[in-house]
Amino acid sequence: MLVGLTSPIVGCYMNNIFKRQFYASMMEILRDDQMFYKSIVGDSYSHLRPEGEAEVLRLINFMAPQMLRIEQQELDDRARNLVAKALKE
């Protein structure tokens, strides 16, 4: 999906989309009463229910390879830019 991105702007854009997607997915889990218990007493009593814990783990397992791919692409882009800058000098 993200393989072959060479533009730092495109890579940054994809990274922002990914972060928003991850945040939105987490918020869906947290808003679901069957997955997250939100205490009216205080935050220290709020917690993920077993179904929510399982869903968070599924989300992380699903997104982890993409996270690593994005990180590697950003490192490759930075290295490519440093080499290009050094060659120009």
Could you walk me through the main structural features you see in this protein, from its secondary elements to its overall organization?
The protein is mainly α and 89 residues long. It has one domain. It is 71% helix and 4% strand. The protein is built from two helices and two strands. The chain has a two-stranded antiparallel sheet. Helix 1 packs antiparallel against helix 2. It is elongated, with a radius of gyration of 19 Å. The two termini are 34 Å apart.
Which descriptors would you attach to this protein?
about 90 residues, 2 strands, two-stranded antiparallel sheet, disordered N terminus, mainly alpha, about 70% helix, 2 helices
Low-confidence stretches: 1-8
- Structural class assignment: mainly alpha
Query: Beta-sheet strand percentage?
Result: under 5%
- Rg, Å, rounded: 19 Å
Instruction: Tell me the total number of β-strands.
Output: 2
**What overall form do the CA principal axes indicate?**
elongated
Biggest sheet descriptor: 2 strands, antiparallel
Write the element-wise H/E pattern from the N-terminal end onward: HEEH
Distance between the termini: 34 Å
Give the helix tally. Answer: 2
Strand order of the largest sheet: 1-2
Helix share bin: over 70%
Number of domains: 1
